[in-house]
User: What shape does this take?
Amino acid sequence: MSAGRRPDVVVLGAGLSGLTAALMLQEAGLDVQVVEARGRVGGRIRSVPTAAGTLESGGATIGAGYRRVITAAERHGVGLVDATPLLRFFREQELVLDGGLVGRTEWPDHPANPFPERDRDLMPWNFARVLTERENPLDTPEDWLDPSYARRDVPLRDWMKGLGLSEAAIRVGYDLNPAFGRDAADVSALLVFFRAAFSASQRRAAPEGVVGFNLEGGATRLPERMAAGLGRGVHFDREVRRIEDDGRGVTVRCAGGSVYRTRRVVCSLPFPVLRQVALDPPLSGLQGEAVRELPSQPVTQLHFGVRSPFWEADGLAPSLYTDGPAGMFAAARPDSASIEVTGFTAWVMGDQARRLDALPAAEAAALVTREIESVRPAARNQLEFIGLKSWGADPFAGGAWATFRPGQVTRFAAAMRVAHGRVHFCGEHLATASRGMEGAMESGERAAREVLECG
Ligand SMILES: Cc1cc2nc3c(=O)[nH]c(=O)nc-3n(C[C@H](O)[C@H](O)[C@H](O)COP(=O)(O)OP(=O)(O)OC[C@H]3O[C@@H](n4cnc5c(N)ncnc54)[C@H](O)[C@@H]3O)c2cc1C
Assistant: This one.
């Protein structure tokens, strides 16, 4: 396998899905070249070393049932760390509504609580999760693509209304900081059921008392070790701009003039990026429509260090869940060994993220800091802005994860993963039975199998 020889397969993108496909193809005896636009591997996995420890600003938490990710970590010598103590900070948060703190013990009887009697003790960040798991019509995660559930491909809002929930309950229970879409009207209930069924399957797989795992030394370790196993390595700083399939082979053209000629391509680019790439022949029909229209969720994270443990001074939980620009202001414990809080990450999603993205980073940080300090005076001058990562504004991601609008699951899901001549597709957006990092690997395996089946 010399650098001068044409690779059998060129894999576009060195995220988890592309690396999974590349290693599988290499193990089957093919000569594989991975081409990556960034100067690093991992894509939407991004561990950032800071003075406060290693911060995760992308995928990090591994469910106990992530069979592929766990096997890959073991195989590549990356340790798993029990993440349960860290995840506590997502469960135990203080609620901030309309700029005011609502104590957790006050919430069940608080006048702003719009939930029905049975669920008044659910905090807003748990409401949609508990509801969609309890009332989930799907038996298994895979069911979301079963045509018999197609009638559920409706706005989540309609489904919630069908359960008798008020507009206020839908707003507080879903719309404050939505993981999918702008609000409950903008997301397919089927996608949310899929996510809930997948989460439930993770819980069933978990050993008693364990919620999930992190990777020792930071999540980026895994893609780094995977890439180290590639015979040809990864070609960095090659932004793919054009893919031409002439029926006998494929030519991949990058910004800056690099050109690759190969028998087949595995393309892991997220759709907001693939939209910008010229395919010849072009994608058509539902597949072309899916690439143009499938949204990816805007998520912006702001990382802060702390000068003193202000939560000990005011006796509140470290984390806050707000309906303002700070989104979910979650305590971070960047190093796996302790449960000490060493920083915070504001997770801001949907339209709030878009609004922050329109500001310079320092102004966005000032806005978030002001919101925290106004509800929690003990935090005054105690937060130190470290950095901002907008996945929505990232030119090589275009969002944090794929989301489906009402009707898009039944319209696009089957068509969008079909090979286009000699070009095969993978990426978390094309997973059928799992989500996140596990979904990325699932899709990479499927694309590699497709290539191998073509001979
Ligand atoms: C904030 C955040 C938190 C998350 N939390 C979790 C979590 O806790 N658990 C979990 O399981 N998942 C989580 N995820 C999701 C998980 O990180 C992703 O599903 C997974 O990493 C996606 O892998 P991928 O290979 O599909 O895509 P990517 O990682 O995006 O890989 C695509 C690659 O293609 C490259 N590329 C893009 N354009 C071009 C181009 N033109 N030319 C060449 N290369 C290009 C990109 O740079 C990238 O490296 C999170 C994601 C985010 C953003």
User: Anything to note?
Assistant: The first strand starts at residue 9 and ends at 12.
